[in-house]
Model the fold of this input.
Amino acid sequence: MIGIVNYGAGNIFSLTSALSRLGLSYGMINTEQDFEQYSHIIIPGVGHAGAAMEKLNQTGLVESIRQLKKPVLGICVGMQLLTAHSQEGDAQLMNIIPLETKLFDKDLGIKIPHMGWNNIEIKNNLLFEGVENQTQFYFVHSYFIEYNAIFEIATAEYGLQYSAAIQKDNFYGVQFHPEKSGAAGEQLLLNFSNLKQ
Amino acid sequence: MLSKRIIPCLDVKDGRTVKGVNFVDLKDAGDPVELAWQYAQQGADELVFLDITATHERRKTMIEMVKSVARQLNIPFTIGGGITEIADAEALLNAGADKISINSAAVKNPQLIADLAKIFGVQFVVIAVDTKLVAGRNMVHLNGGRLITEIETESWIKQAEDLGAGEILLTSMDHDGTKQGFDCRLLDSISKMINIPVIASGGAGKVEHFTEVFTTTGVDAALAASVFHFGEIPIPHLKNELKKYNIPVRL
Done:
């Protein structure tokens, strides 16, 4: 069963709807003890990374998340929270994956936010099992995680190459919204639910 | 590469879609959920629902509809019409809407844009602008083009961007309903002037109009209603045609 970290950053109705459509059961994680009930953990997130981190800090769940050995999936801002730092609000984040979250540079001739369907270059990874390389996913964000060879499991391009998905051990993050990315997004959520501990 | 988005727009009244939608295999043309699902299957990249309900029950009905759509739909959607305050926006967000589109309320109270952007993030805030050429100047209009304002379209859009709009939905009232093509000149100048995405609206009649707007302007998306509802332009066909012109699309 999937546990969703309930820290008040954005709406999760679309996410829970997607899980329901897939027949995946889920519940909310509000306290440290709640983690035990679930085999897989999702950290959702929309909006401002600094504000989201503040809310997450207030729940007192950060240390428990850092200690998790179960598969964890951060979505959008939830992915950014896994990194060390964001330029958005100059915020210290969970630092589970030692990367920097940066603001897109409009001088690259791109519009911000990066909004819409973009294709990704996929590395061989269980999270993308059955998803064709260059499949398009739905993105909406103004900040991105720098490209890196070590943790990268999918790359997107928007003005520059950046991380569409990252992984370190049991921690996964996707910048796009699988719950809004059609059949491919649903496949990804299903793959996540099938990851072994 | 970021795809150009194709966005069908649906009018909703009392929780039901209106304006003669006639898909062949549609059981209930007034059911927004079924219609939305059909469009997603066809390859629509996003949907816009425009609420034209005028009754007191509007908010409640709309929230119920948004929830049903969000339960079934696996692509993003925007809700517009009658949103005048933060509470409206918040209720829609919690019901599963990805974005809200505001028009008159923002013109009357520009601070609303800043407030919405601060609370929900810029990605949630679409500013819809209806424009009409009057004596050589592009002027913002309200009430579906019936009411002229004293605001020039270019300066309003710039202001909206500065306040925190995440996207501009620009409808040319001179082109809307004509099926003679989008207002490419205006759309190009606006999309060059600002640094947020622009959705072109008004005037789509045939496939060539979409090709034209994507090859001659910098817009990010194109919205249309009747050509999609009446099956005049099937979305898979449209996207295949766009691809022939090397316009990036999601197939």
Observations:
- Chain A has a mean pLDDT of 96.
